[in-house]
Amino acid sequence: MKLLFLSVGRMKSEPLTAVFSEYIRRISRYCPVSCETVRESKAKVPEITREEEGERLLRLITERDTLVLLDERGKMMSSLSYARWLSNRIELSAGRLCLLVGGAYGVSSRVRERADETVALSLMTLPHELCLVILAEQVYRAFSILRGSSYHHE
Predict the structure, then answer these.
(1) Domains and CATH numbers, the chain
(2) Labelling 109: which of 29, 33, 45, 154 has CA 20 to 30 A away?
């Protein structure tokens, strides 16, 4: 099983990029991991932006992939329940487990329909760069919980 972090737009903040890269490096000890971004739309209309970015995102996802959309309206979990959830998804996924962070205006209805599940990191709306960092940290934390390492404390 391979883990894919998928997002709209490249990270612009060097400090956040460094933290994200560090967590990706740590996650790679537990499973193959990669990151892909699609170009942000230049459209000024939110609906058109979502559609253009959605088309680009859907081109990167195969039928075998399990797509998890990150959205504040998704399922909330504790770190422990997220670890169990991640373990289950890894076991059940025939292809890659794709964790998707949408753009500034969210994602298109086609992307929402394709998503196998929607998960929330917070009830608050977060900038996508910060969301990627938090997501990577929680994935690393989940693997450390599953492997019994000393990273997570109760």
Answers:
(1) 3-147 (3.40.1280.10)
(2) 33
